[in-house]
Fold this sequence. Notes:
18% strand; two-stranded antiparallel ribbon
Amino acid sequence: VVVDTNTEAADLSAACQQLLDDDGRLGEVVGIGADRNAIRVGDEIQTRDNTRKLWTSDGRKVLNRDVWKVTGGGPEGEVIAFHLRSKRMVTITPDYLGTQTVLAYGATLAGAQGRTSDTGHVLVTPRTNAASLYVGMTRGRQTNHAHVVTDGHDHGELDMGNRSGLHAFADAVIRNADGDTSATTVKKEWAAGEVERNAARRQGRLDAQNRQTWRNCRLMIPTAARAEAWPLEDEVVRALSGTRADVPKLLSAAIRRTDWRRSDPGVELLRLIGERTEPQTSDRPRSSGSDHERTRPATPSR
């Protein structure tokens, strides 16, 4: 659920937590987060700072905006959790928990970027701007819902008068976070961002192609290991984002070489993909003699 402020995110997360607890889905309290909400076994939490003081079970550092599920607590106040996508484990110290960890049910614009779920919700208030609304309405894979505040628009610094849901939503669509800007300035800023926009479009097309290729190739994974492989999609797409290699062949080879009997086969799969990636472009030339020479497998060194 995407909201405007950290305070709203904390309040909404507390309400979601209460509903989960009422339904018997949460366990004991194991700590207190930076948003002053209790952290319970079964809660989803978000880390808010990159740190090298905490390391995961596969040797990675904890990152800002990572989302975890709490599985237990330790005798010194530490919290044990696993990453929602990669399933790697981490032990969060009481100090980091109290200063850099929050419940993850509600999120601001910054906290929601990069996160996806089956269903997305966004709270639209007189403060919601177009950028926040776009992020909020694109988090859900299947459906996205807007919950529009229709009163409280009578404050001079926000808007005037109460609004219908339709009009309040439309206000947010055109609300500029930077205030009123002249047409000339907007035109210049638009022109200045052309290269970045084009690059983003190309990368978006490549990511979509790579995502579909992964969904096709993952059927090669042994049936017993597929449950662990399915959550790897986003990480695989990121790993492929800079490759010039033939993606179907690269993925097929990496899947065949991965030992899927390991407890963490996803780590090996991503490593194998990373060994073969090179900068990728969307407009690949057709195969030619020079291409053949460039992609010919290297002779193994003795």
